[in-house]
Each structure stands twice: as C-alpha cells, then as structure tokens.
C-alpha cells in the first residue's frame, strides 16, 4: 500500500472534519426518522433529501478515513534545517525576470490551495523546487512559457 505525504496541519484539518461529520450522524438519522413519519416515501422530499445527505456524509467519512490511513504525516519542524527544499517547507522564491516574490508551502495533493499559498508536491513548480537549495535558480515550464525562479529562503515552519 502506497503512503501519501501529508503535513501535520493537513492531517489535523482532516481529523477535525471527520469529528464534525461523525457528530452529525445522529442529527441526520433523526431527520430521516422524522421524514419517514410523514408518510408516503415515494413522494417525500424531506426523506429523500435526508437520505442523500446521509449518503454524502458517509462517503466523505470513508474518504477521510482512507486518506488518513494512507497518510505519511511529516512534521517539517522536527527535521533539521538544511536550506534544501523538501516536502512541508515554506519557500520564498523570486521570478528572475520580474523580481516578483511569492511564498509557497509544499504540501500533499489533498491539502493544496494556491489561494492560501499551499502548493501541491506534484505541481510543476514544486517538482522543480524539491531537492534544490537556497540561492539556486530553477526553470519551470508553465503554460505561458518557461519561467526562472531563484530560491530566496527555505523555512521549516
């Protein structure tokens, strides 16, 4: 079975979501029971809505449990700082041509959210950065062409 990398924060977020979903189970069951009492199940919209909500919640619970069981949780703060880009680090990079700076944390695929600066480890930029060190210049092929970035700083936060 393949293990997938995940940050401590990503695992914590999934565990929190799992707790919320499991806490909602009794409410969903109650909604189904109340809707069932209304009579004819064929034309009972409340019943069908509650059953659909139950199905979605149970599917998400199974999905989260599978992700957590296959996760290799990496705490980057416990890894000695080397200046090298690895999974979980926060990296400041600067576009060589425009001098525009951007900060990304390299995270697992399920944690990625570009708006929050969380970059999937399998993205083209992350693949170019991993294994490189502060001061290195990396070339990234993007849809708009080739872009060069300099690695300004690597932080274990």
UniProtKB/TrEMBL annotation:
Positions of the Transcription elongation factor GreA/GreB C-terminal domain: 82-155
Gene Ontology BP, a term: DNA-templated transcription elongation
UniProt domain Transcription elongation factor GreA/GreB N-terminal: residue ranges: 5-73
Membrane-spanning residues: none
GO molecular function (one): translation elongation factor activity
Annotated Pfam families: GreA_GreB, GreA_GreB_N
InterPro entries attached to this UniProt entry: GreA/GreB_C_sf, TF_GreA/GreB_CS, Tscrpt_elong_fac_GreA, Tscrpt_elong_fac_GreA/B, Tscrpt_elong_fac_GreA/B_C, Tscrpt_elong_fac_GreA/B_fam, Tscrpt_elong_fac_GreA/B_N, Tscrpt_elong_fac_GreA/B_N_sf
Keywords: DNA-binding, Elongation factor, Protein biosynthesis, Transcription, Transcription regulation
PROSITE patterns: GREAB_1, GREAB_2
Xref: HAMAP family: GreA_GreB
Family (UniProt): Belongs to the GreA/GreB family.
Known function: Necessary for efficient RNA polymerase transcription elongation past template-encoded arresting sites. The arresting sites in DNA have the property of trapping a certain fraction of elongating RNA polymerases that pass through, resulting in locked ternary complexes. Cleavage of the nascent transcript by cleavage factors such as GreA or GreB allows the resumption of elongation from the new 3'terminus. GreA releases sequences of 2 to 3 nucleotides.
Protein name per UniProt: Transcription elongation factor GreA
Chain's gene name: greA
